[in-house]
Structures are given as structure tokens and as C-alpha cells.
């Protein structure tokens, strides 16, 4: 926002998981505050998100992936207020409070439900916030589905030039307004440029749902163990996203912690948690299947490998890295291979500022267009009603189900009996809620794999 802004902006973020809260809160700061125009230090290591330019109110959508206290602490992003809400409770809050900017950091169906719910809640209201949404990382699946579910926001953020081109093509291809697509970058990139460490440290960034099968996940763990034994002079870290019983953006049926119990791990191999930026501070080689951590690593010019052992496949997401120069196998890594990323490919992903021959891709200015668009919309006065592409006319067999999952009718109004919490839950309700979540996670991580294996007999 312009430095001349006379008052502190009020910004709200609604998120449904730990990673989306991190993306949403940091995005809100970057598109609303001049404090983030020039940044060289890691944003992940700083909790300076709710700075003097904005008041940030966080809302965590109640569900299977609602972040735990530990996960929120690990992210390290500070807000002026943060509380858990149901979808209907959040919509009610949006009719009581006045915000300048609202960031919807949700899965696609959640964004669509909130857009329709907000359109209904704000009927006849002369003013409303600028509504922003986007993606938390690499977009490698369900491109059309996810994009059309996000259509209707004032800004649909694309994390790279490549994504912006793809997003506009999808919207224009179905006859939807593509003017909302705005190119930015991932908001959590940063940190000091890479310098070789002693001891040399290899980090495998695990993912909750990729790969999916026990066989493939066991294979990757076995290769990591073999690499550690082959290179006893190296420190080898298995970077885990969540602890057993916790959920993140994706469901993890087979945690690596559980698989690791069957191994006699070498002394130089450790399982670690914590902030990804802090782990990258001590990384010499980042290895992953397709994690967004690869982009964080590339931004800091850390040698980065995207594994090909299980194939280069859309189901794994590593097809996104074709042309990056980072594709390699464990056999190559065991032999000492270090990849050299393609500068043009990296620049198109919105990372590694100034790494291209032409000097394009400045990360410091990556959010300038979004800030300008937000400022322009805030000064236009009354904004038009939200108009998503999906309506009861364009998607009569799809939209009602998307909205019903969030207890909303096809017109965006709350369904009868929709859960709403007008006050903080009492001790009994908190115990019941924790038990219900525990039962769900037990079903996902214990019962579902057994049933799946029985079905394969």
C-alpha cells in the first residue's frame, strides 16, 4: 500500500490448514504492507507479519486439518487475533466487522463456498473488502477444477509467470473474466544465499500424500537410509511435515515416522521437524519428490534434486519440474551428482531473483502489481458484487454439493441446522471434538490402509 495511507488497514485471513495459514498470512502482509517491498532475510524465521501497516485477524476453518498449537508455533506467523470458526460463523462475522482486505486461504471448494456465502451475506451492503485467493504452492493437478472454484475473487494470485499464463488461458477458455489473475510469487521465499556447510547435509523433504503407497514410501525411506550409510561423513535429515496424529493440507495415511520404526537407522540419519527455512539454513542438498520446498531451496540457490526413481508422472507432481535441470535419481546422488538448475526455468517459477541472463525475476518487486491492484480497488469506493463463474445456472449438478459441504444452500444462505459457535466451546465439547478428530485420524492412518490392502487380496 502507498506510504501515504492514513489509517491502519484491517485484513482478515481464513485458512483451513497449517500451510494455508502460513501462505495466507504472509500473502496478506505482502500485498497490504510496504514493509515487505524489499526483503532479503527469511520471512519464515520472522514473526513480524502483523506489522504497523495492518491489523491482521486470523480465522481457522474448523475441520480435519485445523492446525494444532504446535503447528501454529512452528510456522511462527503472528496475528493480532486468531480463532477457530465454522463456515457459517465466519460468514456471520463478516457481516459484523469491516475489513479492507480478505484473503481466502482454502482448498478450492472452500473458496467457492465462501464466495457464494459472502455474496449472499453482503447483499445490499454499500462496501465490502477486496477478496483475494490463490494457491499455497506448485499447481500440478486439477488445474481447471481448482481455478474455476476460485473464480469470483477480486484477485486470484498466480505464484509465477508460468502460472499466470495458465490461469488466464483456463478462464478465457470457458468465457470467464480473467482480469482477476495477478502474478506474484510464493510469499515465504527468502533466506540467506547458499554457502557450503560442514558437515555436508542432505535433507529429504517428505510429503504427506506423495507418493501414496506403502511400497513407494518404504522404497524412498530405504534409499535415504542407504545413502546415509554410503556417506557416513554426511549428515542426512528426514524433514517431516507433521507429527503422528496431526494433519496438514493433505492427508498422510502412512507417516514416515511409522515406517522408520522398522529400520535400524544409521547414526548420521535423523528425523527432524521445525520451520523449513531454518532447516534450509543448514542444507547442502535438498531432495524431494515434488514438494514446494524445492522452490524455497532453489530460491536460495541450494543444490536441489527432484527424484525420478518412481518415474516422472503427473500423479507424483514431479512432472512440473521437467526442464528445471533438477531431475535425478538416488543412484546418481549416491555417486555424488549435484544438479545445475536451468536459469530460465527457475525465473519462470518466480524464484531466484536476477538469476536469468536478462536479469528478470526480481523477487523484491514480485508483489508490486498485487499491491497496486489492492490499493486501486480500495480507492474505487463501492465494489461490485462477487460473481463466481459457477452458479446454479452454469453448474446446477455440481455447485449445490460444493456449497452443502459447508452447510450452505445453493443461494449461499446457511442451511437449517448449520453448525455455528457463538461462544467458546466448553471443556466437554473440547474433549468430544478432540476425540472426534482423533477417531478420524485413526481411521485415515490405521483403518483405511488395512481395508485397502484387504481389497487388493
In short:
The protein is α/β, with parallel strands linked by helices and 457 residues long. 35% of the residues lie in helices and 13% in strands.
What does it look like?
By secondary structure, the chain is α/β, with parallel strands linked by helices. The chain has 15 helices and 13 strands. The strands form 2 sheets. It has a 7-stranded parallel β-sheet with strand order 3-2-1-4-5-6-7, sandwiched between helices. Strands 10-9-8-11-12-13 form a 6-stranded parallel β-sheet, with helices on both faces. Helix 5 links the parallel strand 5 and strand 6 (155-158). Helix 3 (87-96) crosses helix 4 and helix 4 runs parallel beside helix 5 (143-150). The radius of gyration is 22 Å and the shape is globular. The termini are far apart.
Please tag this protein with its features:
457 residues; alpha/beta; seven-stranded parallel beta sheet; 13 strands; globular; disordered N terminus; disordered C terminus
Q: Any idea what the shape is?
A: globular
Q: With helices defined by DSSP (H or I, 4 residues minimum), what is the helix count?
A: 15
The proportion of strand residues reads 5-15%
What portion of residues is helical? 25-40%
End-to-end separation: 60 Å
Please tell me the overall pLDDT. 85
User: What string, H for helix and E for strand, traces the elements in order?
Assistant: EHEHEHEHEHEHEEHEHEHEHEEHHHHH
Q: Describe the biggest sheet?
A: 7 strands, parallel
Weakly predicted, low-confidence segments: 1-5, 35-51, 353-360, 439-457
For the secondary structure, the number of strands is 13
Instruction: Strand order, main sheet: write it out.
Output: 3-2-1-4-5-6-7
Amino acid at each position: 500500500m502507498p506510504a501515504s495511507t492514513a489509517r491502519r488497514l484491517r485484513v482478515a485471513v481464513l485458512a483451513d490448514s497449517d500451510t494455508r495459514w502460513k501462505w495466507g498470512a504472509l500473502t496478506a502482509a505482502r500485498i497490504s504492507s510496504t514493509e515487505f517491498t524489499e526483503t532479503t532475510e527469511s520471512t519464515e524465521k520472522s514473526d513480524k507479519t502483523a506489522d504497523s501497516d495492518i491489523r491482521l485477524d486470523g480465522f481457522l476453518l474448523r475441520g480435519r486439518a485445523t492446525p494444532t498449537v504446535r503447528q501454529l508455533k512452528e510456522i511462527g506467523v503472528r496475528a493480532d487475533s486468531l480463532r477457530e470458526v465454522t463456515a457459517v460463523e465466519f460468514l456471520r462475522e463478516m457481516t459484523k466487522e469491516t475489513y479492507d482486505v480478505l484473503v481466502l486461504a482454502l482448498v478450492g471448494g472452500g473458496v467457492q463456498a465462501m464466495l457464494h456465502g459472502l455474496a449472499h451475506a453482503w447483499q445490499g451492503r454499500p462496501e465490502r473488502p477486496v477478496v483475494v485467493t490463490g494457491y499455497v504452492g506448485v499447481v500440478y493437478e486439477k488445474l481447471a477444477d481448482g481455478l474455476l472454484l476460485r473464480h469470483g475473487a477480486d484477485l486470484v494470485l498466480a505464484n509465477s509467470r508460468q502460472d499466470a499464463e495458465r490461469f488466464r488461458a483456463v478462464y478465457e477458455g470457458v468465457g470467464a473474466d480473467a482480469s482477476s489473475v495477478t502474478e506474484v510469487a510464493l510469499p515465504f521465499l527468502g533466506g540467506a544465499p547458499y554457502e557450503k556447510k560442514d558437515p555436508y547435509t542432505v535433507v529429504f523433504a517428505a510429503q504427506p500424500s506423495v507418493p501414496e503407497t506403502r511400497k513407494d514410501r518404504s522404497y524412498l525411506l530405504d534409499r535415504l537410509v542407504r545413502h546415509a550409510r554410503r556417506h557416513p561423513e554426511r549428515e542426512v535429515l528426514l524433514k517431516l511435515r507433521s507429527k503422528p496424529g496431526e494433519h496438514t493440507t493433505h492427508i498422510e495415511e502412512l507417516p514416515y515416522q511409522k515406517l522408520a520404526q522398522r529400520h535400524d537407522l544409521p547414526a548420521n540419519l535423523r528425523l527432524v521437524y521445525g520451520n523449513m527455512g531454518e532447516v534450509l539454513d543448514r542444507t547442502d542438498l535438498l531432495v524431494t519428490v515434488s514438494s514446494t520446498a524445492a522452490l524455497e531451496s532453489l530460491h536460495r540457490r541450494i543444490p536441489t534434486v527432484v527424484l525420478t526413481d518412481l518415474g516422472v508422472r503427473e500423479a507424483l507432481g514431479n512432472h512440473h519440474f521437467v526442464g528445471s535441470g533438477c531431475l535425478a535419481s538416488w543412484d546418481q546422488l549416491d555417486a555424488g551428482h549435484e544438479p545445475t538448475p536451468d536459469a530460465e526455468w527457475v525465473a519462470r517459477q518466480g524464484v531466484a531473483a536476477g538469476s536469468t541472463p536478462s536479469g528478470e525475476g526480481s523477487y523484491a518487486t514480485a508483489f508490486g502489481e498485487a499491491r497496486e491492484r489492492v490499493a486501486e480497488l480500495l480507492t474505487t469506493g463501492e465494489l461490485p458484487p462477487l460473481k463466481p463463474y459457477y452458479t446454479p445456472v452454469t453448474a446446477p449438478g455440481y455447485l449445490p454439493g460444493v456449497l452443502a459441504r459447508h452447510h450452505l444452500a445453493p443461494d449461499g444462505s446457511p442451511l437449517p441446522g448449520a453448525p455455528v459457535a457463538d461462544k467458546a466451546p466448553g471443556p466437554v465439547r473440547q474433549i468430544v471434538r478432540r476425540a472426534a478428530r482423533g477417531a478420524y485420524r485413526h481411521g485415515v492412518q490405521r483403518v483405511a490402509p488395512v481395508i485397502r490392502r484387504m481389497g487388493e487380496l
